[in-house]
Write a structure and sequence with these properties.
The protein is α+β, with helices and mostly antiparallel strands. The protein has five helices and 13 strands. Bound molecules: 2-oxoglutaric acid.
């Protein structure tokens, strides 16, 4: 069943097939998917902390200490750090083989009212963002709005923007005034599919916890040419 978000127009699809998702990616259509993360520990970090509290994150802290600090006291964010491989089994990505996905990334952190938790940027691969706790709000902008968003010319694995919608000075970035976002609020258990080239800016209305993975370039090429 497809439900269209009344505000943004983005489609929410319940348990679509992989073919439907490949078709949307081919057409550059973002989707919110429901019913595909039933095996994930949705709802509270307690079970995750019990199971993986001792695992060391790339920043050197234990997963348990980091998540508790982020949720209870501080403004820290994991900012997409690589999720230790020991934890991947708790977050099985649906639709395609596990090896089709690049290393999993962790996006956990405190609520922020003063600024986005992730600044405007776009990625070079199709992104799948599985959401577990809290309300996460995204503004996404279609690729054809590139010139209104002032993307940096020099970039490597992702392309940051020099302008930040809602925050930048319009005298410095005048075309930003014409940029039109689609706003999506992700609830726990939802999987957001962001096709290559879509710009996104992310807000945390609550302490939030998500795990993402890019579809590997070679896997996408095989899928896109198969059907
Ligand atoms: O959830 C976030 O804060 C950012 C996610 C993101 O940028 C991505 O998955 O590409």
């Amino acid at each position: 069943m497809a439900i269209q978000d009344p505000v943004s127009g983005v489609l929410r699809l319940h348990r679509p097939t992989a073919d439907v998702v490949v078709g949307a990616l081919r057409g550059g259509i973002p989707l919110v998917l429901t019913g595909l993360l039933d095996a994930w520990p949705i709802g509270t970090p307690t079970a995750l902390i019990e199971r993986f509290g001792h695992v060391k994150l790339p920043r050197g802290t234990n997963f348990g200490d980091f998540v508790q600090g982020a949720f209870e006291t501080s403004t820290v964010s994991s900012a997409g750090c690589t999720l230790p491989e020991a934890m991947w089994s708790a977050f099985p990505f649906p639709l395609f083989d596990a090896v089709s996905y690049a290393p999993r990334q962790l996006w956990a952190g405190a609520a922020r009212v003063d600024r986005p938790i992730t600044k405007l940027h776009r990625d070079l691969q199709h992104a799948f963002l599985g959401h577990l706790f809290g309300r996460k709000r995204l503004r996404i902008f279609s690729p054809d709005q590139r010139d209104r968003l002032y993307p940096s010319e020099g970039y490597n694995s992702y392309q940051p923007c020099r302008a930040e919608p809602g925050y930048s000075d319009l005298r410095v970035f005048p075309r930003l005034a014409d940029a039109v976002p689609l706003e999506i609020v992700l609830s726990p258990g939802e999987l957001l599919v962001i096709p290559i080239g879509w710009f996104h800016q992310v807000f945390a209305d609550d302490p939030v916890f998500s795990v993402s993975a890019f579809l590997k370039f070679e896997a996408w090429q095989a899928l896109a040419t198969a059907a």
